[in-house]
Amino acid sequence: MVAIDQILERALAGERLELEDGLRLYESDEIEKMGYYANKVMEKWHPEPIATFVIGRNINYTNVCDTYCRFCAFYRPPGSDEGYVLPDEEIFKKIQETVDVQGTEILMQGGTNPNLPLEYYTNLLRNIKKRFPSIHMHSLSVAEIVKISEVSKKPVEEVLLLLKEAGLDSLPGAGAEILDDRTRKKISRLKGSWKEWIDVMKTANRVGLSTTATMVIGFGESMEERVLHSLRIREAQDVMKAEGGPGFLAFISWTFQPDNTNLKAERLPAEEYLKNVAITRLLIDNIPNFQSSWVTMGPEVGKLSLSYGCNDFGSTMMEENVVSAAACTYKVNTNHILQLIREAGKTPAQRNTKYEILRVFKEGEMAETDFVMQN
Question: Which InterPro entries match (predicted)?
Fold first, then answer.
């Protein structure tokens, strides 16, 4: 059996790891060692001891969804008395509250609502940009894009172009879950294949939209599926960068939260999350930014992830409803994030969605405006 030290040294030297290497790392219990090397790889991308974060808000504009994922506690089927579509004015109010605390990003996502036409999205985006021209709309998942394409009977590329013209700035990586169809069919029979997810991301790249990539573990997937997920993300990034597009700006992984869902599973421990963060940082050698997932793992584990390959603490997440529906309700505000990053031995810096640094916080400096987390 190959010693993991050899694999780790090869990764640090810039050599690409492959399937067998990834499997060997997942078999190992030397988590701290893998974290050390993942952190060294991160430092090659980001030599300055800075950890970034973005001030943003999740807006779940609708919970109506006809995809019926077994792992989701948030959605309501079409026709449900508990289904909703937020009024535009309520969305504008939430964005104004974000701007008031110097927020720059809106992650607007919902279900695959079959009752909303393409014009709903284009009109909403135009009205948002008219009122808030500087806000970055990092919005709509792959599944939502595919649903809009089906409802409008227009190709995905045309839908993305129309949404971009209306004000969509970038596409989040939601819906990747595990990029292998065995697990995808088990957890979400109606959601598209892993190839469809990759294809939509490549199409977004072609029309000039940057994207992020994600991974969720804890569905009962095999270690091979985890490795394949990373390699498929890496291969897609190679293609997107070769095409001259912005590609994936960041990678984010987290663990499945089983409470209140139709998919029964054990909640994975922090060690498994940190191990996955480290291994994916070692496997995916062409995405510069790795983001912590304090929302699912808690602030203290989020802080630890900054020593396991993450260079970014993610979003302040002023509002969060999807993970919260699965009884996972960790909350932090901007000044708490500054504290956690400093405790990790890093200098905190506010960024925008493009990972451009807007402000570096000096030692002891706090945010002038802050907020209370909302659900």
Answer: Aldolase_TIM, CofH/MnqC-like_C, Cyclic_DHFL_synthase_mqnC, Elp3/MiaA/NifB-like_rSAM, F420, FO_synthase_su2, rSAM, rSAM_sf
Rg (CA), the chain: 20
For 143, residues 6+ apart whose C-beta sits below 8 A from its C-beta are 67, 112, 174, 175, 191, 192
Rounded Cα distance between 227 and 16, Å, is: 13
- Quick one: tokens of 232? 């498929």
Which domains are present in the chain? 17-355 (3.20.20.70)
Tokens 């026709």 sit on residue: 79
Spatial distance between the Cα atoms of 147 and 159, rounded to a whole number of angstroms: 10
Q: Which of 18, 22, 17, 2 is closest to 224 using CA atoms? A: 22
Question: CA 45, 48, 50, 54 torsion: positive or negative?
Answer: negative
pLDDT tens, position by position, 50-69: 999 999 999 999 998 887 77
Lookup: tokens for 269: 């421990």
Which amino acid is it at 207?
Answer: V
Structure-token pair, residue 10: 């090869």
Query: What secondary structure, in 3-state letters, does the chain show?
Result: CCCHHHHHHHHHCCCCCCHHHHHHHHHCCCHHHHHHHHHHHHHHHCCCCEEEEECEEEECCECECCCCCCCCCCCECCCCCCCCECCHHHHHHHHHHHHHCCCCEEEECCCCCCCCCHHHHHHHHHHHHHHCCCCEEECCCHHHHHHHHHHHCCCHHHHHHHHHHHCCCEECCCCCCCCCHHHHHHHCCCCCCHHHHHHHHHHHHHCCCEEEEEEEECCCCCHHHHHHHHHHHHHHHHHHHHCCCCCEEEEEEEECCCCCCCCCCCCCCHHHHHHHHHHHHHHCCCCCEEECCHHHHCHHHHHHHCCCCCCEEEECCCECCCCHHHCCCCCCCHHHHHHHHHHCCCEEEEECCCCCEEEECCCCCCCCCCCCCEC
Q: Which of 251, 316, 365, 324 is nearest to 63 (CA)?
A: 324
Q: Measured between alpha carbons, how far is 301 from 169 in angstroms, rounded to an integer?
A: 30
Instruction: Check whether 328 is labelled as a binding-site residue.
Output: no
pTM of this structure: 0.92
Question: What's the pLDDT tens digit per position in 19-56?
Answer: 999 999 999 999 999 999 999 999 999 999 999 999 99
